[in-house]
Design a protein that fits this description.
globular; 5 strands; 2 helices; five-stranded mixed β-sheet; alpha+beta
């Protein structure tokens, strides 16, 4: 299990233990983390799982997947250099302690 920290727009932190191999979005939805919707179920067809990866982790989660930037352009909140779709970040032991910040609005 890998610890993921979700930080809401108001600063509220939610820490969960996520199963390796799932996505950061799946882990949030399975644990009722407010602010991650995941309407498309992780098929990269919406931007309701948009997160800002904490600067300390930005280099460890990998680059955006092809098409991810197009979906982020449609996101309800501003796209930033650390913006990712959380459905495209796979939970792995090397991400233990990963911190993601949620934008004000997902849709």
């Amino acid at each position: 299990m890998t610890k993921i920290v979700y930080v809401a727009a108001d600063g509220t932190r939610t820490e969960i233990e996520a199963e390796d191999g799932t996505s950061v979005m799946q882990a949030a939805v399975s644990n009722d983390v407010e602010g991650i919707v995941g309407e498309c179920g992780g098929s990269m067809a919406c931007a309701t799982c948009h997160v800002y990866v904490d600067d300390a982790w930005a280099g460890k989660v990998g680059e955006r997947n092809p098409g991810e930037e197009d979906m982020l352009d449609c996101a309800a909140s501003e796209m930033k250099p650390t913006s990712r779709l959380s459905c495209q970040i796979k939970v792995a032991p090397e991400l233990d302690g990963l911190v993601v910040h949620m934008p004000e609005a997902q849709f």
